[in-house]
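Anyone? Bumping this.
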Amino acid sequence: MSGVDSRLDGTGFAFDRAYGPFLYAADAAVPGGARIGVAAPRTNELYTYQAHYTLAPRRVASSPDRADYLALYGGAGPSAVDSRKLPGGVLLRP
Amino acid sequence: MTATLLALAAATTVGFAVSRFFTSGLARAESAAWALGCGLLIHAALYASGIFLRLHPGPRKLLLAEAVILAAAILLRRRRGRAADSGSRRPEAPEWVSLLCLAAAAAGALLFALSALAEPMWATDFLAIWGLKGKTIFFASGIPDTLFRDPALAWSHPEYPLFLPLLFASFAAVARDWNDRALALLYPALHVGTMLAAYGFLTRRVSRLAGAVAAALIGLFLPLYRAGHVGMADIPLAFGLVLLSCAFLDAREGSSASVRARLALASLFCAATKQEGLLFVVLLAATMLLLPARRRGGSRSLDVAALLLPAAAHTALFRAAAGALDHRDFDLSLLLGERWPELSGRAGEVVQRLVTVELARAAVPVIAIALLLALTPRRDPDVLLVPLIAQVLLYAGIPALSIYGAAWHVQTAFARTAAALFPAAAIVLGARTGALFAPNRAAVRHGPTSPGSRSGFPSREKGPEIPPVAPGAPTAGE
């Protein structure tokens, strides 16, 4: 089992099994130096921590207007020309 | 994982070569623990130097630098007598009791290793603090200012020391890969290192059984050594605290350049790992100043300096790198007179939570420890209880200042941070238990002994021998 697979199947994503594939898809789609905003539920602080850790060393912006990319988890999000579907969400260029 | 394992072995080898300058006279087991601690500090320091000089340290540069240090240490090494026998030379208790304890310790080590390596590190504090910083440093090959100043990372505790993130990044640099499962290897190594330090120290100073009891207590201490704590700073801190405690107890019996070097190294390890480590260094220095020890040679002020200077240097270096940071976890204005009523209300909340939840949960082991301390004669390592109890009391009091609420702070931090103190306390418990089985119950030996000494232990460090203490006799200053 690869490192990514074992993380996805591990305890770290037990709070939401669908969130890991979404983050890793965003990780693969966004260039290393870009700043990314992640919109995810605020019901569990692990959404934030996992986003920052998984997407590091990219900076995860606290506000969408300061991000080069916006990853929306769990929704279709606003329509945009430059958008890409991710497992469980969508990636936009605001 | 193989690369990380090899890097760990290389770091420990270098640590062994360097620590030989100040561990002659110690038992083999504790020498191994010092080698690990010294090696980890050197490894992280080399990596930090490399990124500071913008050398982009990778496996070749790091291993070459370690090879140079290894060669220099071998060339400079002076022989100071053969390594100590880690076992006692005279019977103190049935050997099978010690073996049983050591088997329990080994089982605990195996159990923890299996749980630590079962999956990539996932603890919340690993994701939010230690792993996040380590991963960022590794990929940036530097320490980005965002770790200290990015408002989006305010929850990642920018004020925390960076030794552990640098350690993660340095091992990832050798492997050229951020593998958060392989990096977990550090934790079983630190667990074993903690056991070896306590076992070796007590075998040398008290008895083999005392060391085995301490090793078993540490090995099976599940409140600290469990998967949920892998990736956090508490297990590395526990290792540093045990090293520091051993050096402190040696310094009380007879100071020397070697003892001061051990004090300095362990002090740096603790202060660089966690703020609680710095607190323990300060409390230990206060204990050293306030409780005079039976000593032979050396100077107390030099020992205190050896203890405080590395921690102060680390604090200054971190301040220079990070600048002034806001310690936003605590509201110190609560200490002002006009807010004392509010503070007393929060203190009451803390006490209620501690008594009804934390203490109730740990009632059985706490009562067992209290009974052991009440029913066994006092031993020299008892002095460690002074800084340890003071630290627990501070852990209990500090939540009253928390900006997140007193009860929340106790709930999330008290048990975990207090658990990191237990391995150091196990030195006291091991000494008490082991001395019970000594033939004349007066077998608390004081430091290394000479070849012709009455105890028959091999010589490692020079200095006048100090006679054994009768059971229950108070130590100097008590």
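Late reply, but here is one note on the structure posted above: The interface with chain A takes residues 119-120, 122, 124, 127-128, 131-132, 135-136, 138-140, 144, 146, 150-153, 155-156, 179-181, 227 of chain B (CB under 8 Å).
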